[in-house]
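dude i think i finally got it to work??
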Amino acid sequence: MHISELQKNEYNSFYQTYINTLEEVALVPEMVNRSNALTTILEKLSDEDFNFSYASGKWTIKELLLHIIDTERVFQYRAFTFARHSGCSLEGFDQDLYVENSFSSLRSKSSLLEEFKSVRGSSISLFSSFGPEVYNRFGFVEGHKLSVRAAGFILCGHQKHHETVLMEKYLPHLAD
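look at this
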């Protein structure tokens, strides 16, 4: 399953930004690559660094990582649901409300990294279990079509988008 097989009518145009971050990749290998890329970046940071926010009102690195984890869980669930019950409808989620209620400040760097690896491992297992016909199944989220394969590529692109934000907005401040 390669991204070039994905059609624009398989997902809400809101997600185009995330899809655009990806080159010609295969889905499951890209999940592995993205996991390794983010883990490599974050393992170099200290526990104290995880509490850093680059500006007032912006998320800390802990909150950013929990947002990536939460979003991954949501897109896993969407893919799982549509794989098993094509054509059904699901509601969206409020990312800010999820972050606000994440209790990230109580978490350690190691617990967050372990959770990320576990959730990504679950995604890899889930998407690896799908046969070719399952990737084309779809459902609706807030009235917009979403295919199983689009859900997988969106979660990869979403993570890559936040890796870029981390590299451009957070890490330069931590190097000072």
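Residues 3-174 form a domain with the Four Helix Bundle (Hemerythrin (Met), subunit A) fold (CATH 1.20.120.450).
im so relieved honestly
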